[in-house]
C-alpha cells in the first residue's frame, strides 16, 4: 500500500496567466492498494472510473509506457483541496494519477516527464509544475515541452485563501478571456510579471501589490465573483500586501505578513456580511511538491 500526497496550487498570481503558480500547504491524499482483479475507485462520489481524472491520468501514463496493471483500489483519502475553486484541484488529480502510475512502474519517470504528461492533460503548466516540484514557479509550455524555473518566496509571507461556496469551472472561465490585447495591456502585464518574480526573489514585499496587478484575465473574470471589489478593499484596509484571483477563481487570494495575527479574524467578520458562505485558510507555501508516502 502507498499514498500520494499532492499540494494545492494557486495559478496566475495576478499577471502571470498560464505562467506563474505556487504550491500551498493544503493537500489531497490518494491511497493505493493492490487487489486481485479490476480497478476500483473509492471516495470519488458518483464519477464513473473512465471519467475520473485520477484514473484517466494514471491510465495515460501507463499506456504511454505500455505498462499493464490489474487489481488496484484507489481511494480519495484526505480531500482538502476544494473542487473548482481555483486551488488546482484538477492538478492534484492529474499529478496524483501520474504518480500512481510512476510508482507502479518502479519510479521510471523523471520530474520533467511527469510534468510533460500532466501539462498535456491539463493544457497549461502553471498548476502542474508547482504541484510536482513545490514552491513558486515560472513555466513556459511550447511544442509539447515545459521549461520551468523556481522563484524564492519569503518565509515571512502567508497566503490567505478566501474560498466561497460557489464554483467556477476553469473551462468556463477561460471562455471570458479575450483572444487579443492592446500593446499597452501587454506592456502592463510584462512589467508586472517581471516585477513579481524580481520582488519575490529579493523579498521586496512593498512591491507585491503593484506586481500582482493584471489586465489579461482578472478584469474579465471579476464579474464571475460577486463582491470581489468589496473584499479586496477590506483586505487592503486590514493590511494585505497584494490581492488576486486564485487560478480561474472562485477563490480570492491575498498575501499578508506572517505577523499580521488579526487578519483572519477581521476578514472573517467582513465575509460574514457578504452573500454566501466563505471559508478562510491562512496557508504557507509548500516547498517540496508531490510526495509518495
Ligand atoms: N476530489 C476530486 N475527485 C475527482 N475529481 C476531481 C476532484 N477534484 C477535482 N476533480 C476534477 O477536476 C475538475 C475541476 O477542475 P477545474 O480546473 O475546473 O478546477 P480547479 O482545478 O479546482 O481550479 P483551477 O484550475 O482554477 O485552480 C472537476 O470537474 C473534476 O473533474
Ligand atoms: N491559468 C489557468 C489556471 C487555472 O487552471 C487559468 O487561469 O485559466
Automatic annotation (TrEMBL):
It is found in: Cytoplasm. Keywords: Amino-acid biosynthesis, ATP-binding, Cytoplasm, Kinase, Nucleotide-binding, Threonine biosynthesis, Transferase. Residues 206-260 form the GHMP kinase C-terminal domain. One of its GO terms (cellular component) is cytoplasm. It catalyses: L-homoserine + ATP = O-phospho-L-homoserine + ADP + H(+). The keyword ATP-binding applies. It comes from the Bacteria. ATP binds at residues 82-92. GO terms for biological process: threonine biosynthetic process. Its main location: cytoplasm. Belongs to the GHMP kinase family. Homoserine kinase subfamily. NCBIfam families: thrB (TIGR00191). Catalyzes the ATP-dependent phosphorylation of L-homoserine to L-homoserine phosphate. This is Homoserine kinase. It comes from Marinisporobacter balticus. The gene is thrB.
